[in-house]
Amino acid sequence: MGTWSTLPFGNDDAADWAYELDEPNDLGPIRQAIAGVLAIGDDAELELFEASAALAAIELLACLRGHPGDTETYTEAADAWLSATSIQPPAELLAQAQAAMTRVLAQRSELRELWQDGDEYADWLAAVADLRARVAA
Fold it and tell me: CA 69 to CA 14: how far, in whole Å?
C-alpha cells in the first residue's frame, strides 16, 4: 500500500476508492464500504483495501456533518463529490460507521497490523480516534 499520511485518504486504496463516488447525493458507495467491513466476522482477516475504503467513507460522513478533518492533496474525487452533495447521513449509517471503525481497530485487521508494525502507530490511532469523534459530533 502506498501510504503518505495517517489520515483517512492518506493511502492509495482510499484515493482509488473515491473514484467510485459517481452520483451526488448517493450514499451507496459509502454504505457499501462500511457494510463490507461489517460483513467480515471477527474471526476472519479484514483486508487492507476494505478497511482503508471504510475509513475514507467515514471521513466523507464527517464532512457531510460539517466536521471535516485535515485536508489532503489526493482527494480530488472526494472533494468534487462533496461539493455537489447536500445529503445528510442517516443515524443508522452513522452507527454503522462507528461499528466499522471498531472492526478496523480490532484483531485480524490488516490495516491495523501494518500500522502497528510501523513507527507511526500512535499517530494512526489518534487519527482514527479523531475521525470517530468528528463523525459522532
Answer: 15
Question: What is the residue type of 68?
Answer: P
Residues in the chain: 137
Kindly give, in sequence order, each residue whose CB lies less than 8 Å from that of residue 119, ignoring residues fewer than 6 positions away.
none
Q: Which three cell numbers stand for residue 34?
A: 462500511
Residue whose entry in the numeric block shows the C-alpha cell 471477527: 42
Residue position matching grid coordinates 475504503? 53
Label residue 66 left, alpha or beta by phi (over 0 means left) and psi (-120 to 50 means alpha): left
Please report which residue ranges of the chain form alpha helices under DSSP H: 12-17, 28-38, 48-64, 76-83, 91-105, 110-116, 121-136
pLDDT one-digit tens code per residue, 78-107: 999 999 999 999 999 999 999 999 999 999
Note the pLDDT tens digit of each residue in 14-40: 989 999 998 999 999 999 999 999 999
Where does residue 108 fall: left (phi above 0), alpha (psi -120 to 50 degrees), or beta otherwise?
left
**CA distance to 44, 65, 82, 94, 119, per residue, from 62 (Å):** 28, 5, 11, 9, 27
- State the DSSP H helix or E strand holding residue 123, giving kind and residue range, or none if neither: helix 121-136
Task: Please give the grid coordinates belonging to residue 5.
Answer: 499520511
